[in-house]
Amino acid sequence: MSGSNRLLYHFIAFVVVAIWGSTFVFTKLLLTNGLSPAQIFTLRFIIAYLLLLFLEWYWHRRLHKPLQLFCHSRLDEFIMAGLGLTGGSLYFLGENAAMLYTSATNTSLIVCSCPLFTMVAMALVYRDEHFTHRQISGSLMACLGMAIVVLNGHFVLHLSPLGDLLAFSACISWAFYSLLIKQAAQRYTTLFITRKVFFYGIVTILPYYLFFPDLPTLSTLLRADILANLLFLSCVASLLCFLAWNLVIKKLGPVETTNWVYFNPITTIIFAQWLLNEPITPYFLVGTVLILGGMYMARGER
After folding, report:
1. Contact indicator for 52, 43 with CB cutoff of 8 Å
2. Which of 111, 114, 77 shows the shortest CA–CA distance to 92?
3. Rounded Cα distance, 185 and 195, in Å
4. Which residues in 83-127 belong to E strands, given as ranges?
């Protein structure tokens, strides 16, 4: 792959992370209006799935080709179900539920450290994955920078075993998502994989409602502000971002792509400063430099 193409895919990953870093504002508005984390996840994935299914059906109809609904084998279908579980229901429930039992700082530190776990998992599972000392050092430097940004000078963590365990489950889930998508990307298109992720994300969240059968009222969903935020989270943060992220993983590989997760707290803080007038501190600047430097060292070129 040429240098210009690699730069393009890195830019796409940056845009995706920037959008994901901004979703806290839209999610917070929905939470304050009575929607639960599970409801938000379910609604955004249902909307994204139906929209993607329609777009794919329309495209295949114009090409006079049948729409592929199932994988070529049961094993591949099982892998797709794993993608929906690890990158969908389990990840979002773990991350959102962690916020109920531990601090946002703890959750951010644990969840945003998933690139390290992804690197370790890739090295253990795939023998063709070999990482240089430069790449490992760069990833550790970026992780340190992320910690400095998140902690923001407050180097005291309040441990909460249940909350931290839930955040850790989300972190591990995303690492497994990166492992599974490497296999899926070798045999299926990005559109097909993303549609399957949405479908199985919805399927695997349904058992939750057996224990917590709480559904939002129709009048709540039809409110203009609620609907607008749901559409942004569904069409942009879910549909477009998952398509773009899965495409970048296919082109750059899981580890190099996942390293952009370190950048997530930076975009969140910038967005908070822009909308909520929260101050930018020297710790933020130092951490940002370490993240950028570490990501440059950990890039895929040898």
Report:
1. no
2. 111
3. 13
4. none
State the Cα–Cα distance between residues 147 and 112, nearest whole angstrom: 9
Whose structure tokens read 């609620």?
A: 226
The 3-state DSSP class for residue 157 equals coil
- Give the other-Cβ count within 10 Å of 123's Cβ: 14
CA–CA separation, 282 vs 124, rounded Å?
A: 38
Interatomic CA distance for residues 80 and 76, integer angstroms:
6
Which structure tokens are listed for 228? 């607008």
Q: What is the pLDDT of residue 302?
A: 44
* CA–CA distance, 188 with 46 (Å, rounded to integer): 22
239: pLDDT strictly greater than 50: yes
- Please list, in sequence order, all residues whose beta carbon lies within 8 angstroms of the beta carbon of residue 121, skipping any fewer than 6 positions away: 175, 176, 178, 179
Q: What is the pLDDT of residue 241?
A: 96
Q: Which two tokens stand for residue 260?
A: 């952009």
18-28 average pLDDT score: 79
pLDDT of residue 176: 93
For residue 12, count other CB atoms closer than 10 A to its CB: 19
Average pLDDT (62-68) is 90
3-state secondary structure 223-264: CHHHHHHHHHHHHHHHHHHHHHHHHHHHHHCHHHHHHHHHHH
